[in-house]
Task: inverse folding
């Protein structure tokens, strides 16, 4: 085996050390300022692509879900529109009493008076756009049979109206007729 | 053996030393490593450019889909709101107490020898119904006529409602004599308190024709 003896001068040793330091600086600069940012950029772009692909995949299912929901909600949508149509535009105090007067007049009960007692918001969060209106309906002169038919018709034609109190008193001077007071609550869309 | 003289000994040694110069070798190695590193960097940069192109395509595709998805999500929320609101409204509608069938039942229970002077009914907070009925009954035994009305009311309400209770709140004889069908009869004033729940069977909202009329007792 042949041994090569290398004798380095002081100047050469200095250069060698300087080169070694330069090498390490080069490595550091290469990884920190070139390859590192490049890899970071690549990773972030890959993550972004993954996110977008995930969103695209979920969006397809979302679109299908909405389409199915649209079909399922068909009946509810129609029913909701029908219930909403029971509340005309304008303040309820403006249209509800005349509507009731006309209704009872059509039922052969005249002189009906309707008063708004109060209105409150519903506790149910699903009914945030609806208000409960409490009304007092006074029918000063009604025959019992006519009244019962009118109440039946009212309950059938006004699904959002609920009679919560009924008071029927015979009129002493005319026992054929009764004096009736109804307390009713209605659900009306907020306008 | 011929004698071989090396007259350029010093020059050859210098040349050999120059060739084995560690600084030179180090610089060559450094250059080679640098070249490899540059090549690797360029390869990576090329890959990154490819990924950037893919990202651009994905963003373009998403840009086309996003408005549809946003609209679908909005519509979905709206539909869910409509469904739940309709459900709540339907439960309110179905949970109503229909007074017309009750009035019909009440009218069936009142015989010609009885007269109701007041009916006061309320839907209580727990969903039960409370009705206070006041009236007059006439007959040889006016208290029995009032009791018959109570029994009949209990029976009639029991057919459609649950937890039916019909109790006398008051029952008192009156001094007044009334003439019914040519016969003089004594009178009694009664007050009935009826309570019931609507959970048993759901009454039909429209009253039927009056079919049963109780015969008066003389």
Result:
């Amino acid at each position: 085996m042949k041994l090569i003896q290398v004798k380095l001068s002081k100047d050469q040793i200095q250069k060698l050390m300087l080169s070694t330091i330069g090498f390490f600086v080069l490595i550091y600069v290469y990884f920190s300022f070139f390859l590192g940012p490049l890899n970071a950029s690549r990773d972030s772009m890959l993550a972004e692509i993954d996110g977008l692909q995930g969103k695209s995949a979920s969006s397809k299912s979302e679109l299908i879900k909405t389409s199915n929901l649209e079909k399922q909600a068909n009946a509810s949508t129609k029913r909701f529109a029908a219930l909403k149509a029971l509340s005309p535009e304008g303040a309820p105090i403006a249209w509800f009493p005349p509507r009731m007067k006309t209704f009872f007049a059509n039922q052969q009960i005249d002189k009906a008076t309707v008063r708004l007692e109060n209105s409150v918001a519903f506790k149910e969060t699903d009914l945030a756009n609806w208000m409960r209106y409490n009304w007092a309906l006074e029918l000063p002169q009604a025959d019992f049979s006519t009244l019962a038919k009118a109440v039946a018709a009212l309950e059938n034609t006004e699904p959002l109206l609920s009679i919560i109190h009924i008071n029927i008193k015979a009129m002493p001077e005319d026992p054929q007729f009764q004096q009736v007071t109804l307390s009713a609550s209605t659900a009306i869309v907020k306008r | 053996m011929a004698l071989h003289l090396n007259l350029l000994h010093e020059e050859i040694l210098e040349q050999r030393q120059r060739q084995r110069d560690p600084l030179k070798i180090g610089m060559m190695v450094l250059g080679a490593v640098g070249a490899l590193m540059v090549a690797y960097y360029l390869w990576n940069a090329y890959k990154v450019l490819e990924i950037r192109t893919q990202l651009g395509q994905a963003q373009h595709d998403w840009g086309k889909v996003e408005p549809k998805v946003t609209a679908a999500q909005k519509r979905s929320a709206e539909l869910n709101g409509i469904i739940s609101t309709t459900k709540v409204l339907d439960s309110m509608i179905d949970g109503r107490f229909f007074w017309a069938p009750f009035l019909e039942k009440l009218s069936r229970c009142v015989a010609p020898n009885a007269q109701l002077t007041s009916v006061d009914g309320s839907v209580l907070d727990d969903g039960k119904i409370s009705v206070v009925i006041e009236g007059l009954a006439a007959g040889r035994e006016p208290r029995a006529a009032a009791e018959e009305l109570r029994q009949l009311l209990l029976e009639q309400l029991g057919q459609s409602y649950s937890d039916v209770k019909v109790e006398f709140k008051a029952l008192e004889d009156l001094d007044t004599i009334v003439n019914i069908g040519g016969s003089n009869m004594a009178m009694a004033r009664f007050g009935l308190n009826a309570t019931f729940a609507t959970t048993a069977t759901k009454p039909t909202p429209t009253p039927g024709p009056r079919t049963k009329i109780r015969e008066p007792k003389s």
